[in-house]
Design brief:
Helix content is about 35%, strand content about 15%. The chain is α/β, with parallel strands linked by helices. Helix 2 (about 30-45) crosses helix 3.
């Protein structure tokens, strides 16, 4: 698949790049995508939720009423979850929600996500750029020329570029990552995936293994 390379002004440079069929043209595996997204979201959970149970409540330990003859159910402690102010029964406890996935499956999921974006014509390739200083207005002008001003977009760098990254950090709905930081969730979450020309080699090298 050939894609035109755009310049910083959103105009066609007259050059085209070939997107690897092994990465951008496979048969998407929906289940692999589901598992990878599920793992990503699970890893974002802190798992610090906690409710006090019966043994952790401060309260009297005396038997609150006699065992028999009241006509109601027996009750031995005011800290029971049946009473107001008592402990919570089977409440949430701290836990780790993360789980592991096979590397090949994660690689397949990312290739599937990129293929879906390619099929939807949602992948844009632009020339590598650099800013003399980190300024949000510089990155905003790039979004305007690409028609992405009010859309969720993911920009993929070939290598670390602090000026470009810092220029985008304050913009809601826009994220800049290196090719090694690509995730299935981030690809699918964006309306458009913008690949800097220098990132293609790294993406194809990482996912063609």
């Amino acid at each position: 698949m050939k894609v035109a390379v755009l310049d910083i002004n959103g105009k066609d440079t007259g050059r085209k790049v070939e997107l690897s069929k092994e990465v951008f043209g496979i048969e998407p595996n929906n289940h692999a995508v589901y598992l990878d997204v599920k793992q990503y979201l699970a890893n974002q959970r802190q798992g610090t939720h906690k409710a006090k149970e019966r043994a952790e409540i401060t309260g009297s330990t005396r038997k609150i009423k006699k065992q028999k003859g009241t006509g109601t159910a027996r009750a031995g402690s005011i800290k029971s979850g049946l009473f107001k102010g008592g402990g919570r029964m089977f409440g949430p406890r701290p836990r780790n929600y993360s789980f592991k996935l096979n590397k090949n499956l994660k690689r397949l999921a990312r290739k599937s996500a990129l293929t879906m974006k390619a099929n939807d014509k949602a992948i844009v390739v632009i020339e590598d750029l650099n800013f003399e200083a980190p300024k949000t207005k510089n990155f905003t002008s790039v979004l305007k020329t690409l028609g992405l001003e009010n859309k969720k977009s993911l920009f993929v760098l070939g290598e670390t570029n602090n000026n470009v990254y810092l220029s985008s950090r304050n913009l809601k709905g826009t994220e800049v990552v290196k090719n090694s930081e690509l995730s299935t969730y981030k690809i699918l979450h964006a309306n458009s995936v913008v690949l800097f020309e220098g990132s293609l080699e790294g993406i194809e090298a990482n996912l063609s293994k």
